[in-house]
Amino acid sequence: MKKIITISMFLVALVSFAQEEAPVEEKKFTLSGSIDAYYRANLNAPNDADNWTKPGTSFANLPGFALGMANVVASYEGEKVGFVADLVFGPRGTDAIFASPMYSATGNIVNQLYAYWNVSDNVTLTMGNFNTFLGYEVISPVGNFNYSTSYLFSYGPFSHTGLKADFTLSDDLSLMVGVMNDTDATEFNPTGDYAFGAQLGYKGQFLNVLVDPSFFEIDFTGGFDVSDKFYLGINGAYYSLEDDGGGFYGAALYPQFATSDAFKIGLRAEYFVEDGIFGAIGTGVADSSVFAATLTGSYVIDNLTIKPELRLDNASDNAFLDNDLGPQKSLSSFVLAAIYSF
User: Fold this and answer.
1) How many CB atoms lie within 10 A of CB 206?
2) Whole-number Å distance between alpha carbons of 101 and 118
3) What pTM was estimated for this model as a whole?
């Protein structure tokens, strides 16, 4: 009996030691996402759909009570490999995948779909479809302070499909290089041409370059914590189509101030210029420009964020309709958005 007890105790100790020495890898599967809806009204222009006038930007432009999107993100994170499947449903999601060559009009709901391999502590390879690395704003409203989006974001790329490599060069310095299909052609390569991109990051400031078969873009994105309560975001970009086909350039500042843990207020002040007749502002006049000021409040209640927003777009030429359906240079509007994240 003593031998049996002794052997049993030895086996228990051996198993316990083995478990301590060789822990089982923890595999993390997560499901997250958001939904958003909003109310929008013009303050100095018609509010019926037949005579609807709006800023020349993406998202949050529908009249009255309107839907954004449902965003569901499934992800798996292993020690070395993982994936992200980011699905979108609703008007904002459809607009985000507008250039999918085959399936955007017939049910494509993929915003991002990629797998990655942590080759080492300092190198990660990613292949698939991923949102763009350029710009200050993103597709998901959870990632933006302002609910409506800027001209710079709306006319830069949304997504890429390809292969990229991320390098951690030091605690402060990072580098990304990638080869991709034509920008926003997310499902396959319809042209046989490829784009090349790079991002150099230093202490939260990023210089981005994208060389596409049809255009070239350089972009700076960054920001600074001026104090514990005050943050200043910065974005600037230059975009040029090939063969002197026009383009755009501009800059935006994003000062944000936290009045409490639950409430913040922020301003986006953007100056955007069309080079030639690019068509972004909607004036039909070469070299038009627009100054857009967007004041947004952000109130957080658990997982729900409420965002009231006032926006003024002031163009250099007539770009909007007034209440008498005549042309005007300025448009003021109000948005109230509700965003729930999980």
Assistant:
1) 21
2) 31
3) 0.88
